[in-house]
Every structure is written in C-alpha cells, then in structure tokens.
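User: Fold this; tokens only.

Assistant: Input:
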Amino acid sequence: MIAVARPLALKSGTNTVVMPGFLMDCAFKQAVRFRVDPAIPRLDVNLTCERCPLTDCEVRAAKPFVLQEQQRLEEMEMALEELRGVNE
C-alpha cells in the first residue's frame, strides 16, 4: 500500500488519508522496480489503530480496542470449547 495523508480542509485539526493497495504478484514486482529502493522509507501499518496488532508503534492514535475485544471473544470461545470437551 502507498499512503498519502494531508490536512482535511473541512475540519481543522483533522487529517485525511488515501491508501491504494496493490497485489504484489510477479507482474507488479517486474513493473515496479523501485519497490526495494532503500531511499524510500518503509513503515509497517495496519488497517486502523483500533484493529492493529503492532505493539511497537510509535504513532498509535488509539488503543486497539477492536482487536482486544476480538481476542477476548476468541478466548471465551476456547474456554467454552474446553468446558464442552470436559463434560462430554
């Protein structure tokens, strides 16, 4: 993905981001040779801060509450499956 951020003209103090994504198949890798250029900064990001599992993010804007809730529900499902296995 390539992301471009800029201030939102409609609301002060708010930014907007456009992130087009590209399938990194063989054709892309042949056509876009600058993808491995060390002069281009690389930053690992996820969809949104609320869903992002990155733990060492320096620019996190919000807690990963969606991810945490998803993990909590998965843990509950696993605990229920264990209980079902014990009772059978």
